[in-house]
Design goal:
This protein is 29% helix and 26% strand. The chain is built from twelve helices and 18 strands. Strand 1 (3-15) and strand 2 form a beta hairpin.
């Protein structure tokens, strides 16, 4: 029975009366080597001999069960149809023999997906999200979608993208934080795989202005440890399943993905500062950890055998208004770091109406600007908490990527608005 192969020609080689076409099909990371012999199929041979690299083709024929091709599965065609011929030469080497400039890779990511390495990376990303959904669904969380055009920011400040919304000021959502909290007035657990929009003037290897997160909120909790337990299980579950299902993709990328040691340690903000101080890093109490501090702490924890670790009980002064206070100065909050980079933040939220208003005033916010949010806390809001897990940051550390831009299809940073 004839089989159909659809894809793009990544290479053409002519050896005497034989033409070899390397076709990258569908979403496979293994190319198909189409072998056309003049003696067996002169019509197909004539077409194959003229095909340009980059052409979109449809090929009918049969796979060779014991093909000799080193790069892909061998295929003997009965018919070749050229669907589209490129007007220009490809801006990269589809065989990967010539290095590609980083900016070229980002600009032409949609074309680079014809290469096995780029396909492997984004197949892993899709697998990560598939298993995140599976884990949360099995835990009883409901997937929701919250607005991305909002009237107030969860974090506030200068990191908001402002919009003119029919004459009113609006913003792109920094996170679904306020809305997922509002849903705790009627649901016990929700999650959303969502974009974040943050107008930060960063140009680092770990920041984007549009990124993606796995956001979770859960009600009726006893404390933030309930939230940390779910997060720990989620991350380990995802890493284990990517390791098991994506062995071919990981091999293509040259990555040995290890499953982090459990249980994941919990160190307090105070303990983190003490560990850093012993290594000569002076962090003033009450300030957030810098990128350099995070990296150093990652090295310290790795020496102890931990890739993943929680940092808990940050000073409340550096946390948003919705985070529950712990005593006079601390908060019921945490970060989850993965080998020297924060991949997630979360904690227990303030569910008491009066305390929320007090928190807003302390932070210099006008409660009237948040009436839509505060209303949800008037009708039996249970104790709740949650987290926002950065997809790109998690993937970046899993795959040992040097730059966060490597693991997102279309980059949005302070320099890139297209493609």
């Amino acid at each position: 029975m004839s089989t159909e192969v659809k894809g793009w020609v990544n290479a053409r080689r002519i050896v005497g009366g034989i033409v070899f076409l390397e076709v990258i099909p569908s979403v496979s990371i293994k190319p198909v080597t189409v072998v056309i012999k003049k003696s067996e199929n002169p019509e197909a041979w004539k077409i194959a001999k003229r095909i340009k690299v980059g052409s979109a083709v449809r090929v009918y024929g049969e796979y060779v069960l014991e093909g000799k091709s080193k790069r892909g599965i061998e295929f003997i065609p009965s018919c070749i149809e050229v669907l589209s011929t490129p007007r220009d030469a490809l801006p990269y080497d589809p065989l990967g023999k010539t290095p590609v400039l980083f900016d070229t890779k980002i600009k032409y990511r949609y074309l680079m997906l014809r290469t096995p390495k780029e396909r492997a990376l984004f197949r892993i990303r899709a697998t990560l999200l598939k298993y995140a959904r599976r884990f949360l669904e099995e835990k009883g969380f409901l997937e929701v979608q919250t607005p991305k055009i909002v009237g107030a920011g969860a974090e506030g400040g200068a990191t908001l993208f402002k919009l003119d919304y029919f004459g009113r000021q609006a913003f792109l959502a920094q996170s679904p934080q306020l809305y997922k909290q509002m849903l705790m007035s009627s649901l016990t657990g929700v999650y959303e795989i969502t974009p974040y929009f943050r107008a930060e003037q960063h140009h680092t290897t770990r920041h984007l202005n549009e990124s993606w997160g796995i956001d979770v909120e859960m009600g009726f909790i006893e404390g933030m440890e309930d939230v940390m337990k779910v997060l720990e299980e989620l991350v380990i579950y995802v890493i284990k399943n990517v390791r098991n299902e994506c062995s071919e993709e990981l091999e293509q990328l040259g990555v040995d993905l290890t499953v982090p040691r459990t249980p994941v340690p919990r160190i307090s903000y105070e303990e983190a500062l003490n560990l850093l101080e012993k290594e000569g890093c002076q962090v003033k109490w009450g300030l957030d950890l810098s990128d350099r501090d995070e990296k150093k702490l990652g090295e310290i924890m790795l020496e102890k055998g931990y890739e993943l670790y929680f940092i808990t009980n940050y000073p409340w002064a550096i946390k948003p208004f919705y985070v529950m206070r712990e005593g006079a100065e601390l908060s019921r909050s945490f970060d989850l770091d993965y080998r020297g980079i924060e991949i997630c933040s979360g904690g227990q939220r303030e569910h008491r109406y009066d305390r929320l208003i007090e928190n807003m005033k302390v932070k210099g916010l006008n409660p009237e600007d948040f009436n839509f949010y505060l209303d949800a806390f008037k009708y039996g809001m249970p104790p709740h908490g949650g987290f926002g897990l950065g997809v790109e940051r998690l993937l970046m550390k899993m795959l040992r990527a040097e730059n966060i831009r490597e693991v997102i299809l279309f980059v949005r940073d302070i320099h890139r608005l297209v493609p």
